[in-house]
Design a protein that fits this description.
The protein is of the alpha/beta class. Helix content is 38%, strand content 13%. A five-stranded mixed sheet has the order 3-2-1-4-5, with helices on both faces. Strand 2 and strand 3 form a beta hairpin. The chain is flat, with a radius of gyration of 22 Å.
Length: 275
């Protein structure tokens, strides 16, 4: 048969030994299960419905872990059939004029976001969220190696103290960090931050003024963060925000798969690279 079809015997044995189930008729329940196990976006049901986070591409990656191969097109069809919706929106926020850090510090990172070692480069930024009808702020510290959130904080003011609190959350040795990369927000220009960087011999790198692409990883992470954590939620007080932030960071690092990490979680990717 191989001679007639002009197929190498090794190809035949490879296919039979690595058979994957391509039957799409019996996998509707698996698609629904993968969707339902992704994190729920809470909010007003009249506005947001019963939304989850994972879309077709991430559901496809989840199913591949079970040796189930479905195309994104088929997964989208099953999602539409079962009214499974994952959407991304933004909160409206009125920008406030703030001081800008005009220090003559160059962009040492220079868009080299990939192929970094663990703890080599930490990037950061701040975002906003409504708490009890007032704007509060969240600071995240992200390890560029695997996009893992290694430090975080939340508070009512956009200050250097908020960044300091995020550093206090880091459980790994700070002297392993070689570069701290941020935009030119004035909250990163402060004696408190300088003391942390000097004490642990961490170099600073700043993006160009008004050029968000320089801090693309942080911008991308915050876009995800706003959609999957902030969107549609109603925080009554700062205590609730901090509790749910802790829960989200744990889920983001340990359970949420990422396309940029070959559909592994940040922790899985770190452990895989260390073996």
């Amino acid at each position: 048969m191989c001679q007639i079809l002009k197929i190498a015997k090794s190809t035949y044995y490879y296919q039979t030994n690595n058979f994957v189930n391509y039957d799409v008729n019996n996998h509707e329940e698996e698609v629904i299960s993968a969707f339902n196990k992704s994190r729920k976006i809470y909010g007003d049901r009249k506005i947001y419905g019963d939304r989850k986070i994972y879309g077709a591409r991430k559901i496809k990656a989840v199913l591949m872990r079970k040796d189930i191969i479905l195309s994104c097109r088929k997964i989208r069809f099953l999602m539409i059939k079962n009214n499974l919706v994952s959407k991304y929106t933004k909160l409206k926020y009125r920008n406030h004029k703030t001081m800008v850090n005009n220090d003559q510090i160059s962009n040492v990172l220079n868009h080299q976001f990939n192929n970094k070692k663990p703890n080599e480069v930490v990037v950061s930024d701040l975002t906003y969220v409504q708490v009890g009808g007032k704007w509060h702020y969240i600071c995240l510290l992200i390890d560029l190696f695997n996009r893992e959130i290694i430090g975080y904080s939340a508070g009512p003011n956009k200050t250097a103290e908020l960044v300091q609190q995020a550093f206090h959350k880091i459980t790994r040795p700070l002297n392993k960090i070689t570069l701290f990369y941020t935009d030119r927000g004035n909250e990163f220009k402060n004696k408190i931050i300088d003391e942390i960087l000097i004490t642990f011999d961490i170099k600073r790198s700043l993006s160009a003024k008004g050029f968000p692409y320089d801090n693309a990883v942080a911008e991308t992470t915050y876009k995800t963060f706003k959609t999957e954590f902030i969107k549609g939620k109603k925080f009554e007080n700062l205590t609730q925000l901090k509790c749910e932030l802790f829960d989200f960071v744990n889920w983001y690092n340990n359970l949420r798969i990422q396309g940029s990490l070959n559909y592994l979680t940040p922790v899985e990717f770190r452990k895989w690279q260390s073996t």
